[in-house]
Design a protein that fits this description.
The protein has 208 residues and is an alpha/beta fold. It has five helices and seven strands. The protein has a seven-stranded mixed sheet with strand order 3-2-1-4-5-7-6, sandwiched between helices. The longest helix has 22 residues. The radius of gyration is 16 Å and the shape is globular. The two termini are 28 Å apart.
Amino acid sequence: MQMNFYDLFMIPLEASGLKDARKKLLVFAKGDVLELGTATGVNLPFYEMAQVNRLILSDTDDVATLKKRLSHRTKTMPQNVLDYMQADAQNIPFKNDTFDTVVSTLIFCSVPDVDKGLAEIRRILKPGGSFIFLEHVISSNPTLAAVMHGITPAWKRMAHGCHLDRNFENALRNNGFSLSKTLSFGKDIFYGGVAKAAESSQTFKNTP
């Protein structure tokens, strides 16, 4: 299977919890689905395609580049369900109430305006729709959090605007989402879940 540098770099992190988290979360994707920041398509094997009516894969790259990059992963998927789009999380080119599910994994660390991106996701979700997310976040350990705050300015310059110290849970709540399911792992540096408009308290068992 074709694999680029990013996929190779991510192998240890996938093995230490990311892959398991993707499996647990993406089973909740259903109906009309938009994935933001598809990148190299690592989420694609974990969709339950029998419950997906339409899956739009998007990234900031142009469509031709995205389709070529994903071709090795999408060739075994039902082609009539798939579509591709160039899109920015801060300005999503769809009408209100379009999707049953929006998916994003490891993109909000580098979205310049997190609030704007989350507002856009809320706007395009249908009433009762689900936002499935997986992010790396600031640690709850004060010592580790201080280190993450300290190195973020330099890290952003080296890693294309990636922030190590964002509190994504607070951002979700501040933008009108409630968390129906959550998981964390990697000394709580990785945080994922399903966010909805309705209140719910169900929580996943943490990934080892």
